[in-house]
Design brief:
Structural class: alpha/beta
Number of domains: 2
Strand order of the largest sheet: 3-2-1-4-5
Number of helices: 9
Bound molecules: adenosine-5'-diphosphate, zinc ion
CATH topology of the largest domain: Nucleotidyltransferase, domain 5
Helix content: 25-40%
CATH architecture of the largest domain: 2-Layer Sandwich
Strand content: 15-25%
CATH superfamily of the largest domain: ATPase, nucleotide binding domain
Distance between the termini: 32 Å
Radius of gyration: 19 Å
Largest sheet: 5 strands, mixed
Number of strands: 10
Length: 298
């Protein structure tokens, strides 16, 4: 039996089971401080061991920044997050002390990508991205058949995109960059620009044309740099009816006819994830199963 934990900014979603279609139990635990959250999480896993069978490995898909390189002495450690209580917390060390088991850690978005690859909308794909448009924006995925890691880990929400200040005077809300992609197009940016929660803006509000514009600019950049077979767009903001269609149309427009396959395949290339709220925790289960053993080259 494996354990998978999606460690998010507001909650930890924990599952135990053999795989995504054989889950024995799941539990959501609020993310407060390590001192409060970890005992609840460890108790849940120990209870599961008593009710079912011993856990053999633990996978974690966590918010970052985070050390995801297994050969590093600080593997599993959280970096300079605005969630101050979690700065310096080490997932691998803490869970190995509690369970003496193999522990694998990756980013929340790589976890979700891995879940979608095993059981969801990216099965059998060697090149795809998973992008979440929620409170913030993040991206992960697989390139040439391996999870994308790099020197640190990708932070696709912080790419720079054109910002026409006449059309959109909002300066952006990223504390590091102002008007990066996340600063312009995250749920938080929508809220600050229009002073209204994204879910309350009607489908004909100008917010959605602008949102599709920014997301499509970023997708065009990702298509031209990484050449993914598919881009899965998840996160709360993508629940807006009609947004996905607008993003597809603008991505086609901005790529300028240069990619020969795109016009015929846009609906398959830019699409939704399938696993919904369980993508991250099931991806963490897949991390635990070692189906993706990260091999470092740097
Ligand atoms: P988080 O990123 O915090 O993990 P979500 O992926 O659920 O969580 O994203 C939350 C964001 O999604 C919020 O900014 C919220 O305003 C926005 N959101 C939620 N529902 C909708 C909706 N139906 N349409 C547009 N935006 C939505
Ligand atoms: Zn930024």
């Amino acid at each position: 039996m494996l354990a998978g934990i999606e460690a998010g900014g507001t909650k930890m979603v924990c599952v135990v089971g053999l795989d995504a279609s054989h889950l024995f139990a799941q539990k959501s635990i609020p993310t407060t401080t390590p001192a409060d959250t970890l005992p609840l999480l460890i108790n849940f896993l120990k209870e599961c061991e008593q009710r079912f069978e011993p856990i053999t490995a633990i996978g974690i898909a966590a918010f970052g920044p985070l050390d995801i390189h297994p050969s590093s002495p600080t593997y599993g450690q959280i970096g300079l997050t605005p969630k101050l209580a979690w700065q310096g917390f080490n997932w691998v060390q803490t869970l190995q002390e509690a369970f003496a088991l193999p522990v694998s850690v990756d980013t929340d978005v790589n976890g979700a990508a891995l879940g979608e690859w095993r059981w969801g909308a990216a099965q059998n794909l060697d090149n795809f991205l998973y992008i979440t448009v929620g409170t913030g924006i993040g991206g992960g995925g697989r390139v040439n058949g391996k999870l994308l890691h790099g020197r640190f880990h990708p932070e696709m929400g912080h790419i720079r995109i054109p910002h026409d200040l006449q059309r959109d005077p909002f300066p952006g809300c990223c504390p590091y960059h102002g008007d990066c992609l996340e600063g312009l197009a995250s749920g938080e940016a929508i809220f600050q620009r229009w002073r209204e929660k994204a879910q309350n803006l009607p489908p004909d509000h100008p917010a959605w044309e602008l949102e599709a514009h920014y997301l499509a600019l970023s997708l065009t950049n990702f298509l031209f740099t990484l050449s993914p077979q598919r881009i899965l767009l998840g996160g709360g903001v993508m629940k807006q009816p009609g947004l996905l269609h607008r993003v597809r149309q603008k991505t086609l427009e901005y790529s300028g006819g240069y990619l020969p396959y795109l016009a015929a395949e846009i609906d398959q290339v830019v699409t939704r994830p399938l696993l919904g709220d369980l993508a991250g925790s099931c991806g963490a289960l897949a991390l635990a199963s070692g189906c993706e053993v990260s091999k470092e080259t740097t």
